[in-house]
Amino acid sequence: MPTRTLWPTVAVSALVLLSACGQEPREAPTDGDAVRQRAIDAQTARRRTGAELQDRALNRVIHAVYLCNNSERLSVDFDNPRQMATVRNSNGEAVDLYQERAADGIWYRASGYELRGKGVMATWSAANREPTECRAVD
Which pTM value belongs to this model? Predict the structure, then answer.
């Protein structure tokens, strides 16, 4: 009888000891040429040329948030592949604008709405309201 009660304890102990066996973890180098090379490789991998950056911006949707002088908050999704922008105001109302050719900066308009700007500044014109100046915050 004592052998039967001892058997589960021996089995569990053996499993614990076996699971502790294994390879010791390798340590990453902390100094020297290997570390310098890893740092150089990491920086080089993140660098992009101007053409790559421009291509990336022109072929994706870019999100921006504007705060306007009339206390309105605009959430804008610039859909560059479709040459459109979707503007949502603080009330959740949305309007799709179509890109126009601008000499400099951005210009989107449709059905009495217009968003024009350069850099972080823009002018928002909504149907039957005075235009307001806005600043990109996001």
Answer: 0.59
